[in-house]
Amino acid sequence: MKRHGTSYWRFRRNKLLKKHVFPEGRVLDIGSGWRVFYEEAVRLDIDPAVSPNVLADIQKGSGFKAECFDTVLMFDILEHLEHPHQALKEVKRILKSGGMLYLTVPFCYPRHGVEYYRFSDLALKKMLQDLDSTIIPISKSKLWNIVWNYHRENTLVEGYFVMARKI
Q1: pLDDT higher for 13 or 42?
Q2: What is the CATH T-level fold of the domain 2-166, as seen in this structure?
Q3: Which DSSP category does 127 fall into?
């Protein structure tokens, strides 16, 4: 299922990002690859081929001082990490008090690349319990859910979009 060269997941996810993500201050984009969501962001990636500003593995530390970023972006990254808890611990360390973390994770979505985990809303709440978080499910279309299970209230969640403020 593609729409203009992108998956329906990415299409719906990108609509949410445009509506809710407003990077402010110093911005870190973790695992951006070739994608540029915010021009002024510091891009951190493990792959030297994508020419990041910082070549590092967020799971092993970033090399940044504590509380040095106002906004952190992590779009479709956590599922690819062997140690996502370590990555989030580092993100929380480098995020300023009052700063925002925006992240997305797929849930019921075909595997892409090397993936280790899928995260439910319950897992995300637990992992981000020390942040003030809003978790928005990204559901498949209504037609897909009707075909899948006759009950409209039992929707298939394709992924989650999270906005979390460091308190």
Answers
A1: 42
A2: Rossmann fold (3.40.50)
A3: H
